[in-house]
């Protein structure tokens, strides 16, 4: 004890003594921590025990970690950049597929209209054949036969042409449907 100051070994002892004296004396620990009369506390200095070798080792470890984190950061940045490039490539491909799909859809609609028109044409030609058949029924048998054969031949050629066009358009339509389906499958993937 020095005048009204008491020196103790550690903070536990200082706290116990402060309570015992109702905080009327100044208490200092060997580490420099102080409890003032009235209970106010202040910190002391902590002696860092360590050598230069330990400090160098700690610096080397920290430097190694910094290098490792820098390397990881560079790897992650490259991965992000690569992913960004892939996203850009996929965006371009998606746009191309959307455009192709739209073009195929338009082609499909045009072909569908042509098939419908050819169906109407075939129907009107069939009606004309039936009409001519009725007309021929009123002629003499030989004349009927000659007219009928000529008209039947003409209509048969027209119907064959129309049937051929319908078949070609149906095949083309089927191919376009297959392509459209393929684009939709690719687009949804």
Walk across the major sheet and give the strand order: 1-2-3-4
Main sheet: strands, sense, barrel:
4 strands, mixed
Which class of secondary structure composition applies to the elements?
A: alpha+beta
User: Roughly how many Å is the radius of gyration?
Assistant: 50 Å
Measured by DSSP, the beta-strand proportion falls in 5-15%
Intertermini distance: 85 Å
N-to-C SSE series? EHEEEHH
- Could you list the spans in which at least 5 consecutive residues all have pLDDT below 50? none
Helix share, percent: over 70%
Label the overall shape. rod-shaped
Number of helices: 3
Number of strand segments: 4
What is the averaged pLDDT score? 84
Summarize the structure.
The protein is of the alpha+beta class and about 190 residues long. Helix content is about 75%, strand content about 5%.
